[in-house]
Amino acid sequence: MNHPEIDIEKITHQLEDTKAALIDQSYQSKESRATVVLDQQSVGRLSRMDALQGQAMAKAEEDRRQLAIRRSDAALARLAREEFGECIECGEWIAVKRLEWDPTLLKCIDCAE
Where do runs of H (alpha helix) occur along 1-113? Predict the structure, then answer.
């Protein structure tokens, strides 16, 4: 049974909207993660270093984005299995405020510490 005090439809829409926004951001940032061309004739050493650093930061952001997408998918799967809102460690309900703040949480406050 899903958490009895949660508006399941609202949470489902929130998770789906978040996932769609993350996928859109991923698509839009694809170019910034592309391979940096190191043309020594047209770009100075510091500019190349800046480009490589920018690429590394974009890749790290994409990794965080993909993790958030997987967490959203997992929360949607818990909703489908009617296990949403149950702490995976102790089996108690996760506080409603915590789930409204972040519906991908897996543990209650006591188990999260």
Answer: 8-28, 45-80, 96-101, 109-112
